[in-house]
């Protein structure tokens, strides 16, 4: 088992805190802006900031574009549509954790990894937890939102597998720059085709609304996501992933304290099952990497 130095441990907790707050910022943003338009604004800001970090990689650009579109614009456009339709922050925070079992299953299909019974149990618990949340009356009534969040987790898992196949040569800022820039043409076309009210949203946006755009672009993407990629380059991802279960804990907590979400028994039970399942998957992946078993 690999232990994180105190500085990196504290940084990872801080990253999870940002991700928890990012759910609040995202809910605020998509409550005012159309969700795909909000995604396009987020990645436009991020792309402008990171434009100097773009580098061309001959012979690898096709794989890089696939990874970037999946992990960038497409994943977040679907996620923000789900956040707008979801009745609360807590169900979104928990459903996002399905990215871990999805990635494990896709790694079996595409990377040849082996899943033994304990990780299989973790996968089952994670899905069971989200299923419990899905049948909460308020969530079930707005089940399209939860379905979109789950779909975004699946898309992000395909993207993560594609990123793994790229190797470790791309630096974090460069990877984030490609994530931002590659999806912009699709995002702007989609918002023009599927949505309306963009001009009115811009004209009536408050400081709070623009703050949501800047927080998701500069704090969540630039600081948290890039910081996480930096930690992945320093430590095995299997040493980091168990601590990312703090993100939904922060998300649920902030949803209750800052957004007024009700804290139901189904959210607690379903969330606990999901986090236990994700933790089992992460711990067994660490054991598999460390011992080959």
Question: Mind explaining what this structure looks like?
Answer:
By secondary structure, the protein is mainly α. The protein has one domain (6-291). 81% of the residues lie in helices and 0% in strands. The protein is built from 14 helices and no strands. Helix 1 (6-32) packs across helix 13, helix 4 runs parallel beside helix 14 (265-291) and helix 5 crosses helix 8. The longest helix is centred in the last third of the chain and has 28 residues, at 207-234. It is globular and about 50 Å long. The chain starts with 5 loop residues before the first helix and ends with a helix.
What distinguishing features does this structure have?
mainly alpha; 293 residues; disordered C terminus
Q: What is the typical, i.e. mean, pLDDT?
A: 83
From the alpha-carbon coordinates, what is the Rg to the nearest angstrom?
18 Å
Structural class: mainly alpha
Order of H and E elements? HHHHHHHHHHHHHH
Describe the global form: globular
| Count of DSSP-assigned helices | 14
Beta-strand level of the residues, as a percent range?
A: under 5%
Distance between the termini: 14 Å
What's the story with the biggest beta sheet?
Answer: none
Annotation, overall tally of beta strands: 0
Number of domains: 1
> What level of helicity do the residues show?
over 70%
Low-confidence stretches: 287-293
Present the secondary structure layout:
Layout (H helix, E strand, L loop, with lengths): L5 H27 L2 H16 L10 H25 L3 H7 L3 H13 L5 H18 L2 H5 L1 H24 L5 H23 L3 H7 L2 H28 L2 H4 L5 H14 L5 H27 L2
Helix pairs in contact: 1-3, 1-11, 1-13, 2-3, 2-9, 2-11, 3-8, 3-9, 4-13, 4-14, 5-6, 5-8, 6-14
